[in-house]
Amino acid sequence: MADQARLCVTNQKGGVGKTTVAINLAGALNDRGREVLFVDLDPQGNATEGLGFVDAYDEDPPTILDALLDPEGVAVEELIRDHPEMDVLPSSIDMTAAEATLLQEPDGEAKLATLLDSAASSYDYVVVDCPPQLGMLTDNALYAARNLVVPALAESTSKRALELLYDYVAALEDEHGVRIDTRALVINRIETTGEARSMVEWFEDAMEDVPTAKVRKRVALQRAFSARRSIFAVDEDVDMREEFAELATMIDEEFSRTEVIA
Ligand SMILES: Nc1ncnc2c1ncn2[C@@H]1O[C@H](COP(=O)(O)OP(=O)(O)OP(=O)(O)O)[C@@H](O)[C@H]1O
Ligand SMILES: [Mg+2]
Q1: Which listed residue, 10, 68, 161, 259, has the most CB atoms within 10 A of its CB?
Q2: Could you tell me which CATH class the domain 5-147+219-257 is placed in?
């Protein structure tokens, strides 16, 4: 791979599996031999905790927020933590003030792009986990990544969530003159119900051009999270590994072919 690809894992709807998908997609890319930087842009810090860096979340400044506000003034490398599968730029308790602070900044939506341009060139992939909200942090992730991975539950409420998300993305594209491509839809936490089945069909129809992964409801995903790793780094045999491996392959092939830079 010649260039770096950046992926923004987002859906403003809460609890749909953004963090789970982001961690396991990062694990799958690592399993393919890719160098991955994981960025936790969510003030909740779930991924930071789930990758084992809850201490970083509570650490004194400088934090990821300082790095966003002043990429040249903060040594980002010193904030990055080593996980066996990936490097991690952890979230921080300070990020609870990020929305309001970034709104006051000129080019407030371009901060993450600047940070990654200056500090993350050695990675094949940057995977950004977003908060459950459309605002300045998600704008930063979208603007920096230009590539979208959308987790969504196989429930009817997902229709409206996707409508809102795509209206929002279109407005951001217009406002900044950029193009943001959806690289994958991940239908997540699929159960064996009629509603789930018909929603999977709806997704396949509504987003037929988008590569789609189907992830079933599996406690093994929660167990891996509690073990602070992706399902690619646990001893147990997890059937969803194949699904995430395929997702990583699809994404990897897409970027190898087009050599798109973020
Ligand atoms: N495929 C799955 N099977 C079983 N449990 C899952 C699956 N995907 C996610 N979960 C669980 O659902 C909950 C929500 O998932 P997750 O935290 O990844 O969602 P999120 O979109 O990041 O949430 P938030 O909007 O708060 O950031 C977690 O407890 C997670 O372990
Ligand atoms: Mg999350």
Answers
A1: 10
A2: alpha beta
